[in-house]
Each structure stands twice: as structure tokens, then as C-alpha cells.
Task: structure prediction
Amino acid sequence: MTFRNLAFVAARQAQARAALRRLKAIYPHVPPAQADVIVALGGDGYVLRTLHRFMKRGLPIYGMNRGSVGFLMNDYREDDLPARVAAAQPIVLHPLHMTAIDTRGRRHRALAINEVSLLRETRLAAKLRISVDKVVRLEEMICDGVLVATPAGSTAYNLSVHGPIIPLGAELLALTPISVFRPRRWRGALLPHNASVTIDVLDPERPVSATADNTEVRNVTRVVVREERKLSPTLLFDPEHNLEERVLKEQFQP
Result:
């Protein structure tokens, strides 16, 4: 791919800001509004925010790791950057669309590239009902919470709560419980990518929050999650270190 106009953006951390200054001194660049590719300097959290920021414009994001976690990033190197970006392989992602209704009846919408998660807000376990495509699959689940993860997000929070790793392009979603008490033996499900998941909070006296990436809604009563195919944020990866290979390697970690 050929990109004419690079823009640099960086997280607030000192090493990211220092890298921003160095790269701007080395390479021609334009403001983000005039760019056809964004070079993001930071960690995974920052590249997710950058994807959200430029998602509707459809700008590809080439991340370089100047943060603490870099699963979604390329290695940081200052040499031959335009050539690296031109040779990078695109990975097209499909975010999740969350619609959350709170106890006041207000409707909240947000997008998630990694996952939508529901978590109890107090010491009391949550009581949830789970439906898939309007069919009730779990009448009552007592737990700390539950999440719906994309393939790209399956190696993040989903993996930490023992959910399955999903290869990119598998067209599946992970539905994973968080510290489930009942039913004791339920460990989650793999769903078609076009499934609609509805999670109802059965007891509002046991408050639950819903989070789509970095957007949190408190005191929800119902959350509906589905894939959003109209948006397709794109990450760029060096061929020798692409995201598909990283996801595959994660399945063989000791």
C-alpha cells in the first residue's frame, strides 16, 4: 500500500512523547485531519483509543510500542518508517455495538474493539439472564459478570478469565462468564459473529455496570451486544510480526 501523508499521535507517557518529537523531526508529516495513515505511539490502550478516534474516517493505524503492553503494536524503530508502513499488512477489525439501558430507562450506545463486559458494582454477586438471538440460553447466572469478546479481543480480558482464543477471521464471538458461581460447570460459549446477545440484570438491588472498551455505563438493566459490520477499523502490522501470527502463538504459550 502507498501512503502519502503520515500523521503522528502519541500517548501522554514520557517515552511516547519523546518518540513523537524524534519522529516529527525526522519525517515529513501532516496533521491527523490531512493524513491517510496514522502512526500511533503508546501501548495497547492508546492504540485502541486511536482506533476509536479515527474509526469513522476509516484511517488505518500503524502502532509502535512506547507503552507497557504492545500486543497490538509493532516494534519501535525509527529507521525506514515510510517503507515499513507501506509494506505493512492490514488487519480489518469489526467492533461490537453495545446498547445499554440503565435503571432510569436511559439508552446508551458505544462501540468496542476488544470486548463488552458486565461487572458487579458491589460485594453482591450479579444475577443475569442471557439470551442469544432472542432465545433464552441461561435463565439465571450468578457471577461477577460476563463478557462478549471479538477475535482481536479474545487474547485480552477474555483470556484472563479463561475464555477461548479465537483466530482472526474465524467469524466467531466469545461469550465468557467471569467468576461464575451458578451454573457451576458453565464455561462460556462460542457464537456466530452475527449473533445478538442480550443480557438482562435480574435483580437491580445487585447493581451491574457495562463497559465497551473505555466507555462505562453504571446501573444497567439490559445490555444488547452485536457485531457492527458497517465499520471496519484497520490495524497495520509488519509482515514478520503480524497479529494473526501473535494470536496463533498465544494458543501455544506454556
Observations:
- The longest strand covers residues 135-143.
- The chain has a mean pLDDT of 93.
- The chain has two domains: 6-93+232-250, 96-227.
- The chain has five helices and 17 strands.
